[in-house]
Structures are given as C-alpha cells and as structure tokens.
C-alpha cells in the first residue's frame, strides 16, 4: 500500500521521524512549516510545504489539497512534531477524510496524560512516583521546600505565547523569585493552571527519556525504549531537550509505565520525562508527551524503527509483538570532544557506537553539512554560557543566607 507521511513542524524531531520513514520504506515525507529550519533544510528526504498559519483551518485545507495534488494515489498519515500541532490534529480530526490517518487517541484520552495536572492525579491514584506538586490557580498556598520549579500545566497554551524572559521551566530559590516569575507568566497572558514542584537534585545524567509504543489494535505496550540523558540543553527555552544520551536497558521503568497505559487507555507513541532520585532510589515521573519526542531518532538508531510501528499498526492493522532490546548506542548532537568534556572523561574512553540524529550517509548537500558543523560548534558557546539546573541550584544555595534557603507555607498572588 502506498502512503505519504505528513509532518507538521520542522524541528529535530521532525527530521528524526522523516529519517525513520525514509530508511524503512524509502519514502519522502511532506513537511508543513512556516519556514525551513536548519534541521530539515537541504534534505533529500523531505518535500516542503509552506504554511504560515499552522493552526488555521483554511490554511491547513489548502495545504492538504496541495499535498493531494502532488501525491494523488497514496494514503496520508499526519503527525504533529510538538504539542500544539498534535492538539490541533486531534481537535480537528473531522477535517481529514478517509484517505488521511491521524494516529492519536481522542481528546479526552490525550489530555488525561498530557495535561500535567491530570497526569499527576493519575500518578497519585496509581502510586507512580512524581515530584511533590502544588497546582496554583488564582490564589494558592503551598508547602514545599525551596528550590522549586514553576511551569505551565497546559503546554499548548504556553507555547503560543511570546514574551521577554520566557523559559520552559522557572527555577526559584526564594519566595521573591517565585512571585516575580508567576507575575511574569500571568502578565504574558497565560491563564491556565501553573505547577509548582520540588526540585529533584541530580545532574544531567540523572535524567531519562522513555519512548513507549502502545498498539491501537489491542491497547498493549509493544515497545519501551530508555535513553539515559548525558547532556541536557541548558538554554532557558530548551531545558528538557537532551543533546546526548546513552540508550540502554532499564527494567525498573517498565512497570509504572504499564500501570499508566492500562489506566489511561492511551495508544500510539508516548514520551516520558523522568529523573532518578537517589534519595528515594527510584525514578520520578515529570510528564508525558502524547507523541514522539525531539530526540526520537535514538529509538530508530537503537534497532526499533518508529515509522514501522505506525505503518504496521495504523495502516496495515497487523498484530504487533513486544519488542526486545537490540543494542546500546550513544546519540549526540555534540562533537565527541565536547561530549567527553562535559562528562569529564577522556575521549578515548567513549567506546560506544555514536549516532548523530541529523547526520545521514544519503544527505550529500554541502550546505546541510555546513549547517550541522556550525550547529555543533555553537553548542560549545551554549554550554559555556548557560549552566545546568543542578549547577544553578548549587551556586544559588551557596550564595544565599541559610534563612532564605527554606520557605514553607507561602501564599502567592496569581494575577
């Protein structure tokens, strides 16, 4: 059966998914975006469709017609590369006729795991470990020890805002910092709930990414792929995006994910952000994205092509069996020198096979190769300029008077 993958967005994850389709089936992906980012530019595996208003229905209908004209005899399967686009696809599922597949569950099922407030309620019910959390709505009192993390409960609404000082998460060491950041977010127009959480100590190597696939046909988990983060992006707008990781087996993570899947009824790909808490000797669940993550190519590179799961399940409707672990790899957007420098190990000690998510042997464009080289060099600047959250916490804690390091029972005005 002929098909065309259609991807909304042009980030590193978009390219990873397009790469998976090309390597498994030899097909090019139709990519919809306002502009071509360096991750997808000058690529031979992508057909680009410009759409300025990504969540405008009329614009989407026009783009769909253009794709149908270019690919008239193929089934289309459409993906969102970030939460805004996935939400748009789910909410507007009726726009897509029988020739289009939207590989995501219904809106209620999707929000039950991707809305952070609802996800933590589910974790509480299932006894799945998550950070001590308070949901702030208008006026709330919380009893948490500083430092705390503040973040939006509704990612799509927050993503649509653009304001000075915007960050993915806000690390607050004192009450004053918490007030300032909450005021900043509210004045920018964010109206949904805010999450305040305890900070879980540990450097980047305590972080983990878990990509799981749940079959639509029988609702059972078919794949759990774990990547131990080695270096996380420290830039304020990109915290939580891993730059390098080590793919390995991690049995202890599977059982809590099984409980979440059974209780939620979710199907398709899910990406969990976790962190190992050495104090409790267990993984703490931060959130789940109801889609493939930015670093999804690590799954394909480690032996489980993500495109294959979509086609086998949604298009061919075949029965899937539980995947077994294939191989250990290191995926990295960094040079080996910079990776080893951040891990404080000699370059000669890195013996694992290395995979760069954007580097493929069939991509011959010198412009693309130049972009990837310059991007790799730019990470030297980013990692020098921005400290990791753990280093910020340590530095701030050492500079604060002890009386300011713990503040309990704070009532924060949310405007």
Question: What does this protein look like?
Answer:
This is D-aspartate ligase. This protein has 415 residues and is an alpha/beta fold. It folds into three domains: 3-102, Rossmann fold (3-Layer(aba) Sandwich); 132-198, Dna Ligase, domain 1, CATH 3.30.1490; 204-392, 2-Layer Sandwich (D-amino Acid Aminotransferase, Chain A, domain 1), CATH 3.30.470. It contains 13 helices and 18 strands. The protein has helices spanning 12-25, 57-70, 83-91, 107-114, 116-126, 155-159, 175-187, 254-264, 297-301, 306-315, 336-343, 366-385, 389-399, and strands spanning 3-8, 29-33, 46-50, 75-80, 100-101, 133-136, 139-142, 148-152, 170-172, 194-198, 207-214, 221-232, 242-248, 268-277, 282-289, 329-332, 354-355, 410-413. The strands form four sheets. It has a seven-stranded mixed beta sheet. The protein is globular and about 70 Å long. The protein starts with a strand and ends with a strand.
């Amino acid at each position: 059966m002929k098909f065309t993958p259609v991807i909304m967005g042009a980030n590193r994850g978009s390219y990873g998914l397009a790469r998976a389709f090309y390597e498994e089936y030899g097909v090019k992906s139709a990519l919809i975006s306002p502009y071509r980012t360096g991750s997808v530019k000058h690529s031979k595996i992508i057909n680009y469709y410009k759409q300025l208003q990504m969540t405008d229905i009329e614009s989407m209908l026009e783009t769909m017609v253009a794709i149908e004209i270019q690919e008239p005899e193929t089934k289309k399967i459409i993906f969102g590369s970030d939460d805004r686009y996935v939400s748009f696809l789910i909410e507007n599922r009726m726009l897509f006729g029988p020739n289009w597949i939207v590989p995501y569950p219904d809106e209620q099922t999707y929000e039950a795991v991707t809305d952070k407030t609802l996800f933590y309620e589910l974790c509480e019910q299932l006894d799945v470990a998550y950070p001590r959390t308070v949901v702030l709505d208008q006026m709330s009192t919380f009893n948490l020890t500083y430092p705390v993390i503040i973040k939006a409960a509704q990612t799509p609404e927050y993503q649509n805002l653009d304001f000075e000082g915007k960050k993915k998460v806000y690390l607050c060491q004192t009450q004053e910092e918490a007030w300032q950041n909450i005021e900043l977010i509210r004045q920018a127009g964010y109206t949904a709930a805010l999450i305040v959480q305890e900070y879980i100590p540990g450097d980047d190597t305590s972080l983990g990414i878990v990509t799981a696939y749940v079959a639509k046909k029988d609702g059972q988990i078919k794949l759990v792929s774990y990547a131990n983060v080695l270096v996380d992006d420290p830039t304020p707008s990109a915290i939580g995006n891993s730059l390098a990781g080590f793919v390995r087996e991690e049995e202890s993570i599977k059982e809590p994910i099984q409980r979440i899947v059974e209780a939620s009824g979710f199907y398709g790909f899910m990406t969990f952000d976790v962190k190992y808490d050495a104090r409790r000797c267990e993984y703490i669940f931060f959130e789940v994205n109801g889609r493939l993550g930015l670093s999804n190519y690590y799954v394909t590179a480690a032996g489980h092509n993500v495109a294959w799961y979509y086609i086998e399940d949604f298009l061919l409707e075949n029965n899937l069996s539980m995947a077994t672990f294939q191989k250990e790899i290191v995926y990295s957007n960094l040079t080996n020198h910079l990776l080893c420098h951040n891990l404080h190990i000699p370059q000669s000690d890195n013996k694992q096979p290395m995979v760069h998510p954007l580097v493929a042997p069939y991509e011959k464009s010198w412009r693309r190769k130049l972009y990837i080289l310059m991007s790799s060099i730019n990470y030297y600047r980013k990692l020098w300029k921005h400290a990791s959250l753990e280093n910020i916490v340590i530095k701030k804690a050492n500079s604060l008077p002890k009386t300011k390091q713990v503040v309990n029972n704070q009532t924060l005005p949310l405007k």
